[in-house]
């Protein structure tokens, strides 16, 4: 990690770019040539895959490029400081940091199976047992973060990734650009920018956030994974925000056919309007629906490139879940513009909510 002396956590790099097949190949050479660290890579939107050679070893990593025109240096340093102190198997690790002429660059651990929903759709054969297994990983990450009083505040499918570590997939949280360490009795109001689809009511209404704001988001993620539908999404940003603040969601049988009552109860447990009524991550890990099952005897020797098959549980329906709607959900999210601020509609929301009391 770059030292905090002489300019802070970020080091400036020389950079030259070569355009090839509509992709950008970046060759970056650190000014400190004694490091022996070169990073040729391919830029894909906001991240790159690079082969690194450092002290004789090679690995594939991801790099998050943050446009200097979009974020202040102090905002980036806040994310770096948080990541430096975190070490958990269900969190993507920060490996190094750099600064180019146009970007701040965070070099991160690579999750070799990509984004969570893409992984689910590509493998198919999704069951409640597998969903519960994946959710436990996310909850373990949240439990660790919350033990440091860190709220992620941007928990959504795009910020959940998968890697294969030996016998089964490991689910990891990434992107801590919105994360903040909460220090009671001080309160923190998070400036929400972008789609509110996975945001808790308190974020939308401009009220103080809490650690359980992340649990609300996990409830929405759970709903999406089990049904392929978004619980609060409506035709306009205003209506979506109203649905969230009114707790206006249901379980249409067409979408939740084969989903157990226990799974629906778990979602309802998290989608409570009052932050203090949502259970903490540690309590969620004790929920019967999320208790780990033993692997079936036929899977005693697992192929590390395949998701595990789990034995039946009395808390789950054993039917395969329909993932066809997830494909449409993923496609919509890819083309969705998340850059619209919602601060301008807070007065509208308050007036609409007050008119119904």
Automatic annotation (TrEMBL):
GO annotation (BP), single: positive regulation of apoptotic process
PROSITE patterns: PROTEIN_KINASE_DOM, PROTEIN_KINASE_ST
Keywords, ordered alphabetically: ATP-binding, Kinase, Nucleotide-binding, Serine/threonine-protein kinase, Transferase
Region (Disordered): 292-317
InterPro entries, alphabetized: Kinase-like_dom_sf (IPR011009), PH-like_dom_sf (IPR011993), Prot_kinase_dom (IPR000719), Ser/Thr_kinase_AS (IPR008271)
Biased composition (Polar residues): 293-304
UniProt KW Glycosyltransferase keyword: no
GO molecular function: ATP binding; protein serine/threonine kinase activity
Record-linked SUPFAM superfamilies: PH domain-like (SSF50729), Protein kinase-like (PK-like) (SSF56112)
Gene Ontology CC: one annotated term: nucleus
Domain annotation Protein kinase: ranges: 29-290
Protein's name according to its UniProt entry: Protein kinase domain-containing protein
